[in-house]
Design brief:
Helix content: 10-25%
Strand content: 25-35%
Distance between the termini: 12 Å
Largest sheet: 7 strands, antiparallel
Number of domains: 1
Order of helices and strands: EHEHEEEEEEEEEH
Number of helices: 3
Oligomer: single chain
CATH architecture: Sandwich
Radius of gyration: 17 Å
CATH class: Mainly Beta
CATH topology: Jelly Rolls
CATH superfamily: q2cbj1_9rhob like domain
Length: 189
C-alpha cells in the first residue's frame, strides 16, 4: 500500500480510502478549464440548491473525462490489491461546483464504490460528510473512495469560496486469480 490512508483514522472504517493525488497542481487548472467549457457549451445554470453540475446531461461530452480516468486508474491497483478485486467499469463522471449557501443533502449511490476528487476545497469542513463517521481529514487535491451504500452529503458551504468536485461510481468484480495467487490470509486485514 503506497498512497492511501487506509486504517489511519481512529474509530473510522478501513473501507474508506483517501488518496493524495500527485500532480494536483498540474491537473487542477486543466480540469477547471474543462468544467468551465462544459458549463458554457451546455448552458448549465445554478440549480435550485445553488450549485452547478452536469450529472443530469449524461449524453454531453465531458472533456475532463480522459484526464480524470487517467488519474483514477493511477490509484485503482491499490484498491484491487487490498480487496482482491478487478475494476470492471468507471461509470459516467460528473462535476459539481458549490457556492456559498449551497449543499447536497443526504444520499447514497448505485454501483460498488463512489469516488470524489476534490478539485477545489477551501475548507475541510465542507468536504463529504458521512452520516455514520462525520468528516475525514481531506484537503484540496485528495480523492476519497468509499462503498456506495454509505449515506453521505455535501454540507452547506459557508465560505465565500467555490468548492469543485468530480465524482463517479466504480464497479468491481472478484479477482479469483489474484486471491489464489496471494492466498486468502493476505486479504484479512
Amino acid at each position: 500500500m503506497t498512497n492511501s490512508t487506509i486504517s489511519n483514522y481512529k474509530d473510522k472504517p478501513d473501507h474508506i480510502h483517501v488518496f493524495k493525488v500527485e500532480q494536483h497542481d498540474l491537473y487542477k487548472p486543466l480540469l477547471l478549464k474543462s468544467i468551465e467549457q462544459m458549463v458554457t457549451d451546455n448552458n448549465i445554470e445554478l440549480n435550485e440548491k445553488g450549485y452547478l453540475y452536469d450529472f443530469n446531461i449524461p449524453e454531453a461530452e465531458r472533456t475532463y473525462e480522459k484526464l480524470m480516468k487517467g488519474i483514477i486508474n493511477t490509484y485503482i491497483p491499490e484498491i484491487e490489491d487490498f480487496y482482491g478485486l478487478t475494476l470492471k467499469k468507471i461509470s459516467n463522471l460528473w462535476f459539481q461546483q458549490y457556492f456559498q449557501n449551497s449543499d447536497f443533502g443526504w444520499h447514497s449511490h448505485g454501483g460498488h464504490w463512489a469516488l470524489v476528487y476534490y478539485v477545489e476545497l477551501p475548507e475541510m469542513s465542507e468536504s463529504t460528510e458521512f452520516l455514520n463517521y462525520g468528516h475525514f481529514d481531506v484537503k484540496e487535491g485528495d480523492m476519497i473512495l468509499f462503498p456506495t451504500f454509505l449515506v453521505h452529503q455535501s454540507p452547506i458551504i459557508k465560505s465565500d469560496q467555490r468548492k469543485t468536485i468530480i465524482a463517479t461510481n466504480l464497479t468491481f468484480q472478484v479477482d479469483r486469480e489474484l486471491i489464489e495467487e496471494y492466498g486468502e490470509e493476505y486479504f484479512r486485514h
